[in-house]
Amino acid sequence: MKNILKLFFLFITTTVHSQIKEKVPIIELIDFSSDLEEAYNRYFDIYHIKYEDLSPIDQYVRSNAYVDSKMDVECRDFWDTHSCHDIYCSFSVGSIYGSSHLKSNSKNNYNPENAHDLSYKHVWVEGKPGYGIGEYLIYSDFNGVFNEIIIANGYVKSKSLWENNSRVKKLKMYLNDKPYAMLILADIIGNQRYMFRELEGTQVKSLKFEIVDVYKGLKHDDVVISEIFFGGPHNAHCFTKGTKITLADLTSKNIEQLNIGDEVAFLDHKTNIIRSACVEKMEKVSHSRLVTYNFKSGLSITTTQDHPFKIKDKGWASLNPYKSMQYKGFESIKRISINDHFLSIEGTEELISIIYLDDEEVTYTISKLSKGDNFFANDLVVGVEELND
User: Fold this and answer.
1) What pLDDT shows up at residue 253?
2) With b meaning 16 or more CB within 10 Å and e meaning fewer, what string describes 268-279?
3) 322 by DSSP, 3-state: which?
C-alpha cells in the first residue's frame, strides 16, 4: 500500500510540474570589478571627453545602460540596481517575507528584505540546514504594473563570495498562491530577466519564489539571492523628429509625417534587394537618454540607445542590447562600437563618435510593417520591433 501511495504522490507531483511553464532568462552579465567601480565614481571627469578618447573601461561606463546622465551618478551608488528609469518611480512592493534567513553577524544581516532593497551589495541567505530546498520568498502588496522579473542569482558582490556560496538553479514561482512557472537560472554573475507580459493585465496579490534545485558552492551550503526585482512595460525604440524615412519610390519623408498605409523601402536580407512594404503601425513616445551617432561621411542620426541597426560583419546591434533583446529577431543582438560599419542604402557608413543627450524629446518609429523586419532611417538599415511573447 505504501508503494502505491508513493507512486500516486510521484504522479501528482509530476503532473503539477508539467502544467507550469519553464522560463529561461535573457542574461545580462555584470562586472562588479574595483576598476569599473572606480570608473563609475569618476564619471563627472569623463562625461565631456570624446568617446573615442576614453579608456575601454570608461567607454563601457559611458555606454552602460545604467549610467544615463550626470544626475544618475550624483544620486546613485555603484551597487544600485538603477531601476528608477524602468518602473520604480511609480511602482513598489509593500511586503517581503522569507521562510528563513541566516543569522546576522557583526558586519552583515541576511534578511529577506535584502532581496528587494535594489542594491546588489546586500543579500538574502536562507537559514535551513543543507541546500535550502523548499525555502522561499513571498512578495506581496504590489502597487503598480510590471511585466518583467529580474533576478541577481548568488552572492554577486565578488567572484569569491559568488563561487563559495550556493546559488539557485531552479526557482518555482507561484502567482497568488498557485504554481505558475519554473524559472531556470544560469550560473552567472549578472541579471537574469524573465518576461511575463500577461501580468500587465493581471491582479497580482502575491508572488512566491521557492528553491527547487541549486548550484553547490565551493565552501558553503547556504543558498544566496542578491536581488529579485521588477521591470515595467517598455516603450518602443524610436527616432527624433526630422529623421528621413526612405519611401518605396526612393523619395523620403520625415518620420513624424508618416501615416499608416504609406509604402516604405526595406532591405530583403536574403536577396540584398530593396523592396516595398506597407506601414501598419506607428509609435509616438517621449524619450530621454537619447544618443546621436556621427559617421565619417558627415551623416548623423539621433535615436534611443536600444534601437537596432544592421552592422557589417556583426548583424543587428544596439548600444543597449539587453533592452533590445525583448523584440523578435533581436535575441542575439550585439553591442554597437566605434568604427562599426552600419549598413546603408548606398553601402556602409563608419561610426566615428557617439554623443549622449540628457534632454527628453518626442520620438517616433514604425512598429509594424506588412513584411520585412527593417526600414531605412537617414539611409541606414534599422530594425522594426515586435514584442516577444
Assistant:
1) 96
2) eeeeeeeebbeb
3) helix
Q: Which three three-digit cell numbers place residue 79?
A: 551597487
For residue 314, give Cα distances in angstroms to 238, 328, 337, 340: 21, 17, 10, 9
* Single-letter amino acid, residue 281: K
Q: Is 257 strand, coil or helix?
A: helix
The cell for 221 is: 551550503
Helix extents (H) in 176-245: none
CATH top-level class of 2-32+79-231: mainly beta
Q: What pLDDT was estimated at residue 331? A: 80
**What residue segments make up the domains of the chain, in order of their start?**
2-32+79-231, 239-383
**The 3-state secondary structure of 127-170, one letter per residue:** CCCCCCCCCEEEEEEEECCCCEEEEEEECCCCHHHHHHCEEEEE
3-state secondary structure of 99: coil
- 214 within 8 A of 167, measured Cβ to Cβ: yes
Q: Is residue 224 within 8 Å of residue 166, measured between CB atoms? A: yes
The answer to whether 153 and 167 have CB atoms below 8 angstroms apart is yes
The grid cell for 27 is 542574461
Query: What are the 10-residue block averages of pLDDT along the chain, 389 residues in total?
Result: 43 52 89 70 65 74 51 58 62 94 92 95 96 97 91 94 97 97 96 90 94 97 96 76 96 96 95 95 83 96 93 92 76 90 96 86 91 96 74
β strands within 242-330, DSSP E: 244-246, 252-254, 263-268, 273-287, 290-295, 300-304, 309-311, 315-318
What is the three-class DSSP state of 377? strand
Q: Are strands 315-318 and 334-335 parallel, antiparallel or unpaired?
A: parallel
Closest CA to 115 of 102, 105, 106: 102
Q: Which amino acid is residue 36, in one-letter code?
A: L
* Domain 239-383 sits in CATH 2.170.16.10: yes
